[in-house]
Design a protein that fits this description.
Length: 411
């Protein structure tokens, strides 16, 4: 396939993960000519299929984006597990922090949803969207760019021209590499060990996280009463815990959870994902931008990784709508520069905050342990600060109406 300037696209997106899929749908709905390139098959699980080990905690602002895109009802019809209560514990400092959706007039604090369900549902919606070009099983070969457009060569031999190239191709982004954009950050030397667990004494709709010196252990509640577990551990220890028998693993998990949910039974395979913090030095370069994990990777302890990526999408579609409402061509250089500045600043702040928390709770002795326990208990009693934290996680910048409450943007 060869496409001349006459058929130029507005936007060409590489990567149909959750972020690339949402961006493609949002930009197509804004009336732009969009193409999306994905190397691997994409499909959503059916309700009859077992729950996938990879899940995310979808914050209210992300739910609203998916709802605006018309896919939330479809996702929820398969399964989305709401959590209305969240408890954070310090295993050594003895502090606890509790959040309750009812305190803010919200129906819940968020939903646990499988990555594959979100990406697959977006893909099925894209298949039904007129005028969008989906290039499955293809990948980026190379591209050339000037101040007005990008010419992209695909591995299949196809060539496409677009006004904007979006790299939504994940942590090892090839778009980012070809733009010669470096990154700051480093691997944590930790892995996120994930599996589905059945607990003897489940607490419905409670998302629970216990900070251990080796890393946080999170239990994310699923509708069927089971939990999706994310256990951050030194990489070698995570590997050991994959190799031990199910009984040995359950015993170790019981100890790490301090028997909070009674006896625990492993329902699925265990999988480990290497963790890192990584921020691209620039999110924009001439007629190309980076979003999602291609631009920023944060520690999963706050469950914000893809939520930051969805906020990238919301901010971009808002910039397009604003330009259109003022009669300007969307995605101009000034708009892209403003978008990149705002998104990089938010991602950097989040990455630093989660990095700091990971380090703080990694300390296992000395006065800091007692001090952070006192700090956690204090924050728990300071209602306005607690509310600010909850609003931040829910998406304070999104100008969000949720339940009986309206979260307004400070900007
Ligand atoms: C253990 C763990 C727990 C997490 N928990 C949470 C959570 O609770 N909440 C949360 O918000 N986040 C969480 N995250 C982070 C979240 O999973 C990521 O931020 C999210 O998956 C990133 O989505 P993405 O679409 O940017 O990238 P990806 O999911 O990596 O998608 C990239 C897509 O691009 C495609 N691609 C790559 N290269 C090419 C190419 N050259 N050509 C064509 N296609 C290409 C890939 O096949 C893929 O489909 C967690 C992460 C981990 C590791």
């Amino acid at each position: 396939m060869r496409t001349g300037a006459r058929d130029a696209l507005d936007v060409l997106i590489i990567g149909a993960g959750m972020v690339g899929g949402a961006a493609a749908l949002g930009l197509a709905r804004a009336g732009l000519k969009v193409a999306l390139v994905e190397q691997h098959p994409v499909s959503a699980p059916t309700p009859a299929e077992a729950v996938d080990a990879r899940v995310v905690a979808v914050a209210p602002h992300s739910q609203r984006l998916l709802d605006t895109l018309g896919v939330w009802a479809e996702i929820a019809a398969v399964r989305a597990s709401p959590y209305s209560h969240m408890q954070v514990q310090d295993a050594l400092g003895a502090g606890t922090l509790d959040f309750d959706a009812a305190d803010y007039g919200w129906p819940c604090l968020g939903h646990i949803v499988e990555n594959r369900l979100i990406a697959g549902t977006l893909w099925h919606a894209l298949e039904r969207e007129p005028g969008i070009r989906l290039l499955l099983g293809d990948t980026l070969d190379h591209f050339e760019m000037n101040e007005t457009s990008v010419r992209v060569s695909l591995a299949s031999g196809g060539e496409l021209r677009a006004r904007l190239l979006i790299g939504a191709d994940g942590v090892n982004s090839r778009v980012r590499d070809q733009l010669l954009i470096g990154t700051s950050g480093a691997p944590y030397g930790q892995s996120g060990l994930v599996a589905q667990i059945q607990a003897e004494q489940p607490s419905p709709q409670l998302a629970w996280q216990r900070f251990l010196p080796s890393g946080p252990l999170a239990f994310l509640p699923l509708n069927d009463g089971s939990y999706s577990m994310v256990w951050t551990l030194p990489a070698a220890r995570a590997q050991e815990l994959i190799e031990v028998s199910a009984e040995q693993f359950e015993a170790q998990l019981l100890r790490a959870s301090n028997s909070r949910f009674g006896r625990l039974r492993l329902l699925t395979d265990r999988q480990a994902f290497p963790l890192r913090v990584q921020i691209a030095q620039r999110f924009v370069e001439q007629r190309a931008i980076l979003m999602g994990d291609a631009a920023h990777v944060v520690h999963p302890l706050a469950g914000q990784g893809v939520n930051l990526g969805f906020a990238d999408v919301s901010a971009l579609t808002a910039a397009v709508a604003q330009a259109q409402s003022r009669g300007r061509a969307p995605l101009g250089a000034t708009d892209l520069a403003r978008w990149a500045r705002q998104r990089r600043s938010e991602a950097t702040l989040a990455a630093r905050a989660f990095d700091g928390l990971n380090r703080l709770y990694g300390i296992s002795e000395g006065p800091m342990v007692a001090a952070r326990g006192i700090g956690l208990r204090l924050v728990d009693r300071l209602t306005p600060i607690k509310r600010k934290l909850a609003e931040q996680a829910a998406g304070i910048r999104a100008g969000l109406a949720y339940g009986n409450s309206r979260i307004t943007s400070p900007s």
